[in-house]
C-alpha cells in the first residue's frame, strides 16, 4: 500500500509528454498545470489550471492577469500569484534579450513581440519610448507615462529632454490600447506629428509610433501617418 496521491502519476506522464514532444505537445491548461506544480506541490493542479484558463482565456492571459483578479479564483493565494508572475517576468526578459544589442530595425518582429508581451494586456494605457543610438541599437526602453483606460498624456518636451539626456539619435514610440483595437485615434496621430516635429528640430529621428492591442499592432509609419 502507498499513500502517494493519484495525481503524481499524472504529473509524471505530463512531464514526459512535454519533454518528448515540446510545448506543442501540451495544451495551454496543461502547461499551466506544470507551472502550478511549484506553488502547489501536494495538490492536483489540473482543475485550477482549467478554471484559470476558463476565466482569463489563455496561458498568456493568465500569467499577465492582475494579481487581485487572480486571487478571486478559489485556490489562488500568494504562492500561485508569485509563481505566475515569475513566469511572466521570465517571458519579458527573454523577449528583451532578443532585442537588446541588435539593430532594432532589422529585428522588428522581435521588437513587436517584446512590446506585445509587456503591454498588450495592460488595463490602462502606457506610453513608452525606445531610445536608439546612431547604429539603431537600443539604449533604453522606458515607460514615460501611464494613463487611464483610453488616454495617456504625452509631453513632447519631456520626450525630447530624455532623448538628449541619453544621447539618443532616434526614437520609437509605443503605446497600448486596452480596448484591444490598435487603430490610431486622431489624438494619437496629432501627438505623433508633434513629437516628430520636435525631434526633427533637434536632429533626432522618429522612426515609428506603434500601437499595441490584443488583436495586433499598428505602425503609424506603415500606415503613412508619419
Describe this structure in words.
With 226 residues, the protein is α+β, with helices and mostly antiparallel strands. It has 2 domains: 7-94, no CATH class; 104-219, Cytidine Deaminase, domain 2, CATH 3.40.140. Helix content is 46%, strand content 16%. The chain contains 9 helices and 5 strands, in the order αααααααββαβαββ. Strands 2-1-3-4-5 form a 5-stranded mixed β-sheet, with helices on both faces. A hairpin with a 5-residue loop joins strand 1 (126-132) and strand 2. The longest helix has 20 residues, at 78-97. It is elongated. The mean pLDDT is 86.
Keywords:
226 residues; 5-stranded mixed sheet; single chain; Cytidine Deaminase, domain 2; alpha+beta
Q: What top-tier CATH class of the largest domain fits best?
A: Alpha Beta
Roughly what percent helix? 40-55%
Overall radius of gyration = 21 Å
List low-pLDDT spans. Answer: none
Tally of helical runs:
9
User: Helix/strand/pairing class, anyone?
Assistant: alpha+beta
| Tally of separate domains | 2
Write the layout of secondary structure elements.
Elements lengths: L6 H15 L6 H10 L8 H11 L2 H6 L2 H4 L7 H20 L10 H12 L6 E7 L5 E9 L9 H11 L3 E7 L9 H16 L3 E9 L2 E4 L7
Parallel strand pairs: 3-4
Antiparallel strand pairs: 1-2, 1-3, 4-5
Helix pairs in contact: 2-3, 6-7, 8-9
Quick structural summary:
The protein has about 230 residues and is of the alpha+beta class. It has helices at about 5-20, 30-35, 45-55, 60-65, 65-70, 80-95, 110-120, 155-165, 185-200; strands at about 125-130, 140-145, 170-175, 205-215, 215-220.
Amino acid at each position: 500500500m502507498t499513500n502517494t496521491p493519484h495525481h503524481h502519476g499524472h504529473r509524471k506522464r505530463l512531464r514526459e509528454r512535454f519533454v518528448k514532444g515540446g510545448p506543442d505537445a501540451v495544451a495551454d491548461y496543461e502547461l499551466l498545470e506544470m507551472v502550478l506544480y511549484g506553488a502547489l506541490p501536494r495538490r492536483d493542479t489540473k482543475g485550477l489550471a482549467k478554471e484559470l484558463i476558463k476565466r482569463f482565456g489563455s496561458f498568456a492571459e493568465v500569467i499577465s492577469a492582475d494579481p487581485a483578479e487572480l486571487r478571486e479564483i478559489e485556490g489562488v493565494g500568494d504562492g500561485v500569484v508569485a509563481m505566475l508572475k515569475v513566469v511572466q517576468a521570465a517571458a519579458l526578459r527573454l523577449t528583451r534579450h532578443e532585442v537588446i544589442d541588435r539593430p532594432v530595425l532589422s529585428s522588428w518582429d522581435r521588437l513587436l513581440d517584446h512590446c506585445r508581451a509587456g503591454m498588450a494586456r495592460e488595463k490602462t494605457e502606457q506610453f513608452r519610448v525606445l531610445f536608439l543610438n546612431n547604429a539603431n541599437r537600443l539604449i533604453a526602453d522606458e515607460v514615460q507615462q501611464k494613463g487611464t483606460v483610453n488616454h495617456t498624456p504625452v509631453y513632447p518636451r519631456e520626450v525630447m529632454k530624455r532623448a538628449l539626456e541619453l544621447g539618443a539619435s532616434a526614437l520609437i514610440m509605443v503605446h497600448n490600447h486596452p480596448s484591444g483595437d490598435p487603430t490610431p485615434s486622431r489624438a494619437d496621430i496629432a501627438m505623433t506629428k508633434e513629437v516628430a516635429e520636435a525631434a526633427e528640430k533637434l536632429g533626432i529621428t522618429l522612426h515609428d509610433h506603434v500601437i499595441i492591442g490584443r488583436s495586433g499592432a499598428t505602425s503609424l509609419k506603415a500606415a503613412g501617418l508619419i
